[in-house]
Write a structure and sequence with these properties.
This protein is of the alpha+beta class. It has six helices and 16 strands. Strands 10-16-15-14-13-12-11 form a seven-stranded antiparallel sheet. 38% of the residues are buried.
């Protein structure tokens, strides 16, 4: 079917439904945990660095392989530790040689950090302002040994809520991403009003076909839920790849030189399949990861434009939703 002949979805995509789903997501606890990157991006020779809500953070592994995290500003004279090397599990400041081994030293204090096997999280209690949790709210995923995972990271001029709102609007999929989705129908939605409930019962169910190549498509049912304020998860519940998940995490970075908010999108794709041939795909994970990241990047070029437009209109009082 030609793009312009597909069924319009704007009447179904009610702003109140999206807005209330967003508010319920924002009311759920995060425990002050923020995603900073993928587990595989923590290397042996340099730290994983990220700015979270204006706070510079570095993450690396000590000489035992334990993940450690802390401020990215050297306590001596303020050197950017993101540019410092890791030697035998020790982060060595490249300005004056201050050696950090992951424990409190010379005014540097470690931060709680968590590696869930796919993503790395850091807890910033003074940023989140919530009662802290011992671990982040990690969605249910396929077992790592049975899955192929890849992580995409992108950046946009918007706030985390704009990223989450984009994901809580499944109706735009076939219109805005015709190169990836066809025959999209939202078959169940959460209420437009009402008290907060469990995230699992507060989701959008979608029947959609993913385009693979040419006229080849794979029909699935996907359910979108928001288990915490900065995360939206798509679970494949029926069809090919049942049990696979796509997690979208939004991490506030701070403001740019014009005072506009910047947000990182960290999207984890954890794919699984019951098909016998999927074992071959798992062995090809290093080859598949760049392809999965490229596909996610194409989608997010559009979706970041959506999120950035939403923030632009909100910040100037013109957002109609």
């Amino acid at each position: 079917m030609a793009w312009e002949r597909q069924r319009p979805t704007w009447r179904e995509a009610r702003p109140a439904v999206i807005s209330q789903a967003l508010k319920r997501a924002q009311a759920r606890p995060s425990g002050n945990w923020f995603v900073v990157g993928s587990s595989t991006s923590v290397r042996d020779d340099r730290p994983l660095a990220r700015t979270v809500a204006g706070r510079e953070v570095v993450v690396w592994r000590d000489d035992t392989g334990r993940l450690v995290a802390g401020p990215g500003i050297c306590p001596h004279l303020g050197a950017p530790l993101r540019d410092s090397p890791v030697r035998c599990g020790t982060l060595v400041c490249h300005w004056h040689g201050l050696a950090l081994r992951g424990t409190a030293f010379a005014g540097w204090e470690p931060l709680p950090v968590h590696d869930d096997g796919v993503l790395v999280w850091v807890r910033l209690d003074d940023v989140g302002g919530e009662p802290p949790l011992d671990a982040p709210v990690v969605p249910e995923r396929p077992a790592p040994a049975d899955a192929v995972s890849a992580v995409y990271v992108g950046f946009g001029t918007c706030e985390p809520e704009d990223i989450v709102a984009n994901r809580l609007d499944p109706w735009h999929g076939a219109w805005f991403h015709p190169y990836s989705f066809v025959d999209l129908t939202v078959v169940d939605t959460p209420p437009a009003s009402g008290a907060d409930g469990a995230a699992e019962a507060d989701g959008f169910a979608v029947d959609v076909s993913f385009k693979l190549a040419g006229r080849l498509v794979v029909p699935v049912r996907a359910v979108f839920t928001a288990p915490e304020p900065r995360t939206v998860v798509m679970h494949i519940t029926e069809g090919e790849g049942r049990g696979s998940v796509v997690e979208t995490h939004a991490t506030p970075l701070g403001s740019d030189d014009r005072g506009r908010p910047r947000t990182a999108v960290v999207e984890a794709v954890v794919a699984a399949s019951d098909r016998t041939g999927f074992a071959v795909a798992r062995r090809m994970t290093p080859v598949l990861r760049p392809l999965v990241r490229a596909a996610a990047g194409r989608l997010w070029r559009d979706d970041l434009a959506y999120a950035e437009r939403r923030w632009q209109l909100r910040s100037t009082g013109r957002f109609p939703g």
